[in-house]
Inverse folding.
C-alpha cells in the first residue's frame, strides 16, 4: 500500500502529434529531392512494426527501422515554429493539458515539501540539459558558478548524486565538487564523495562498475565510428568509458538517416552492445541490464535506504534515459521525478521544470526549506 505522505504520480503520459510526416528518397544522403508522405501516427507505427517483422537482414537496416530511428531523432529536436494559427492553438491546448498533468515543481513546491517533512530527501540530478544548458559543442557544456554553488549547498544538506551518460572524469571536470556521488556512463561507473562531508563518508572512490569488461570493446567501437562518421559533417563521437555517444546536434537533418545507418552498421559485429537514444544523441551501451534507474536503486541501497519508508528520492532530468529512473520511482510509489522540458513529452515523471534556470531556483528553495526546518527543530 502506498504511504499517503509520499508523493505518487498516477498521471498517464500524453500522446504527441496525431500525424507523422516522413520523407522517402532513393539516396541515403538525400542528394535527390525527397517525396513526403503524411500518416496517422497509429497507422505509421503499425507500418513500422510490419516493416521490422519482415526485415530479416543480418544488419537489420531496413527502411522501416531506419525511418523509425530518424523519426525518433526528429522527436528529440526542438519544436519547430508552426505555420498556421490553427496549429498554434492546438499546440497551446496540448501544452496546457500537459502542464495540468505534470505541474511545475516550483508551483507545487509547498505541497512537495509537506509530503517530504520528517523524511530524508535524497537528490539525483542529470547533467546536460538539467544543470547545464544544451549547447552545440558537448565539450563546452559548462555549469555556471551559481549552479555549482547551489549544488554544493544541496549536497551539504542532502545526499546528492549526479547521474549522467557522460564519463565521470568529464562531468567531474565540469562540476568540480567532491561532496557528491557521481554515476557516469548511465550509472555503469559509480563513485562516492572523495573527501569527508557531513555524512562522515571519506575517500570512498569507486563503488560499482558492472560493465568493466566492456571497456576494450567500447574503445574499439569508438575508433571505428570516428572513422565511419568522418564523412558526416557535424557528427561527434564521445568516449564515455563504459558507453559511447554519437552527437548529432550539429548534423543537418537531411543526413540523419545516413548517420543512423553508419552507427547501426557497426553494431553488426558487436552483438553485446545495443543502440539507444538520448537528447540529440545516439548512444551505444553494453547489453547488461543496467541503467539510470538501476543506479538510483544501487545508491539508495548504498546509503542504507533500500527498505526505508522515511526516504524521499527526488530525480531531476531532461533526457529519455532519465525515464528509467522516473519509472523506478513511479513503481516504488515513493519519491518523485521532475522532467526538465519546455515542450510536452511522454514521461513517467510527476512534475516539470522548463530549463536549468528553474532547476537552479528549485534547488535554492530546497536548501532554504531545509535550513528553515532545522531552525524550527
Amino acid at each position: 500500500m502506498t504511504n499517503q505522505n509520499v508523493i505518487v504520480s498516477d498521471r498517464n503520459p500524453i500522446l504527441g502529434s496525431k500525424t507523422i510526416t516522413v520523407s522517402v528518397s532513393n539516396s541515403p544522403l538525400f542528394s535527390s529531392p525527397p517525396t513526403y508522405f503524411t500518416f496517422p501516427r497509429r497507422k505509421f507505427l503499425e507500418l513500422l512494426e510490419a516493416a521490422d517483422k519482415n526485415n530479416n537482414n543480418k544488419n537489420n537496416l531496413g527502411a522501416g527501422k531506419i525511418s523509425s530511428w530518424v523519426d525518433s531523432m526528429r522527436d528529440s529536436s526542438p519544436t519547430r515554429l508552426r505555420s498556421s494559427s490553427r496549429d498554434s492553438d492546438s499546440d497551446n491546448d496540448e501544452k496546457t493539458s500537459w502542464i495540468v498533468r505534470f505541474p511545475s515543481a516550483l508551483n507545487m513546491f509547498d505541497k512537495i515539501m509537506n509530503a517530504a517533512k520528517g523524511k530524508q530527501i535524497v537528490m539525483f540530478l542529470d547533467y546536460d540539459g538539467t544543470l547545464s544548458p544544451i549547447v552545440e559543442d558537448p565539450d563546452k557544456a559548462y555549469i555556471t558558478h551559481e549552479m555549482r554553488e547551489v549544488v554544493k549547498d544541496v549536497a551539504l544538506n542532502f545526499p546528492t548524486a549526479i547521474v549522467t551518460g557522460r564519463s565521470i572524469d568529464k562531468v567531474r571536470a565540469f562540476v568540480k565538487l567532491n561532496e557528491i556521488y557521481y554515476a557516469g556512463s548511465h550509472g555503469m561507473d559509480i563513485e562516492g564523495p572523495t573527501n569527508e562531508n557531513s555524512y562522515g563518508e571519506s575517500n570512498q572512490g569507486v563503488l560499482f562498475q558492472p560493465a568493466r569488461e566492456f571497456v576494450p570493446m567500447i574503445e574499439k567501437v569508438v575508433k571505428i565510428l570516428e572513422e565511419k562518421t568522418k564523412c558526416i559533417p557535424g557528427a561527434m563521437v564521445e568516449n564515455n568509458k563504459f558507453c559511447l555517444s554519437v552527437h548529432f546536434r550539429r548534423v543537418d537533418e537531411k543526413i540523419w538517416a545516413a548517420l543512423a545507418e553508419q552507427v547501426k552498421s557497426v553494431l553488426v559485429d558487436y552483438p553485446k552492445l545495443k543502440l539507444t537514444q538520448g537528447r540529440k544523441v545516439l548512444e551505444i551501451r553494453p547489453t547488461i541490464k543496467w541503467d539510470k534507474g538501476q543506479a538510483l536503486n544501487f545508491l539508495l541501497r548504498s546509503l542504507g535506504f533500500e527498505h526505508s519508508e522515511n526516504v524521499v528520492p527526488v530525480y531531476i532530468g531532461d533526457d529519455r534515459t532519465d525515464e528509467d529512473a522516473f519509472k523506478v520511482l513511479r513503481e516504488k510509489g515513493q519519491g518523485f521525478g521532475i522532467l526538465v522540458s519546455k515542450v510536452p513529452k511522454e514521461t513517467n515523471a510527476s512534475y516539470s521544470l522548463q530549463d536549468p534556470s528553474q532547476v537552479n531556483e528549485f534547488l535554492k528553495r530546497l536548501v532554504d526549506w531545509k535550513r528553515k526546518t532545522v531552525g524550527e527543530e
Observations:
- Residues 356-376 form the longest helix (21 residues).
- The longest strand covers residues 311-317.
- The two ends are 30 Å apart (CA to CA).
- The mean pLDDT is 82.
